[in-house]
Predict the 3D structure of the following.
Amino acid sequence: MRVVIIGGGVMGLACAWRAAHAGLEVTLLDHRICGGGATRASLGALWPPSPLADGPLQRLHRQSLGMMESFVREVADDAG
């Protein structure tokens, strides 16, 4: 199966990496260099949500932050 991912920021690259590991043929499109758009503007950081907000998006955000350490370790192991 082939997939096209538009955007080579942190999220696009992570999705492309996961899809490739799942055996998909991935094409990644970005009009700039990967990591040169919104990723650069946000310093590549994942900012925690406000503790005053507790909607579904904020809960998902907190859950994602909690998974970041294992994801980084997995990417580092894969990169050697």
Observations:
- The CA atoms of residues 8 and 34 lie 4 Å apart.
- Helices lie at 10-21, 38-41, 56-79.
